Amino acid sequence: MPQPNLIKLECTECHNINYHSYKNKKIIKERLELKKYCKQCKKHTPHKETK
Q1: Per-residue confidence of the chain (51 residues) as pLDDT tens digits?
Q2: What is the 3-state secondary structure (H, E, C) of 1-51?
């Protein structure tokens, strides 16, 4: 059975890891960036994929 491709999403402003998600690494080669709500900043901020 293949390993799930779990990724962490980190806030670009406060650098907290707030979300976890899955990604197909064969299709999407570059790092993912999504706009999500950050509890620390209390607003919607861009969240980037970390290692």
Answers
A1: 667 789 999 999 999 999 999 999 899 899 999 999 999 999 999 999 998
A2: CCCCCEEEEEECCCCCEEEEEECCCCCCCCCCEEEEEECCCCEEEEEEEEC
List domains and CATH numbers for the chain: 6-50 (2.20.28.120)
CB atoms within 10 A of CB 45: 16
- Token digits of residue 50: 């970390």
How far is it, in rounded angstroms, from Cα 23 to Cα 32?
9
